[in-house]
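User: Can you write out an input/output pair for a complex, sequences first and structure second?

Assistant: Here is one pair. Inputs:
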Amino acid sequence: MPERHRHTFLLFLTFLKIGAFTWGGGYAMIPLIRRELVEKQKVLSEDAFLEALSIAQSLPGALAVNTASLVGLMIGGVTLQLAFVLATALPSFFSIVVLAFFFLRFRELPLIQAFFRGALAVVVSVIVLAVWQIGRKAAEDSVDLVLTVVLLGFLLVTGIHPLFVVLLGGGLGLFLRR
Amino acid sequence: MTYLLLFLAFLRVGFFSFGGGLAALPLIEREIVDTYRWLSKPEFLELLALSQLTPGPIAINAATFTGFKVGGMLGAFVATGAFCLPSVLLTLLVVTFLSRFRENPYVAGFLRGLRPALLALLLRVALSVIQDGIHDWFGLLLSITGGALLFFGKIEEIPLLLLGGILGLLWYGWR
């Protein structure tokens, strides 16, 4: 195998490992990506990584996928970009397919239902706490708070598609935050 | 036809989920539960639990699960691919042409304005999760205790979910 392809393949494996061993959402992947690419393999500078991370946060999509895609482009162009995105999605993809295969067959079993009734009650805590933590950082001033309440009220009353709320928020930002 | 609908639905989710994977949840809920009814409300919640228990970004898990339920392996592939596609295209666009795009005042204003929108959407998801995930006083008790343990850093998400599941098994399984 030519040196360049070997290099791409090894980086692909690195990402596969990161994807397979980070539970609890894409955010958990970020420190691992940094440690592997910046500290261990030294294929990316600290500055470039931070730039990738901040661009990743301003684009739509999963943070881990955006970050993987950006560092791939920065290190080795489109081939590495696609390899990294694939490596980020694959472990998740296969574990869900296997789980879904069994789950969709057995979900009616009373014991499975009992398990999920308990698990779902704490999923509520996980989600509510995550929203609280994001909210504390996202709402910086009273304008944010007022807009949040207005947009939430609008959403609950009219039931419009969430993407219009995204566009509305961005549009209001154009007027208020420029 | 289903594959095309799946593709378009997750493409929309991918393009409009500003703010990371969690921000994709309100969009996913809207598309797969309300509009297309590919998952029921309880299934959507179970999907959230499964997503927490498996590695990887929550939105990828959700896309794969929904795609698999609706259209098998191919469905899972289509939905996951469609969700990742906007990421791939937009990052490519930014790196190639617009490396300073965020310094543009219009773009900066738009991005800043997304914060309350994101927050409103997340609150809406939190409300619907509370409504559908807690059925009785035992669930409420689990939920409050779990939330307190998480808040004070006494437990992590995955052990908490397994613990909740086991307690559920003991409590509900015997009745």
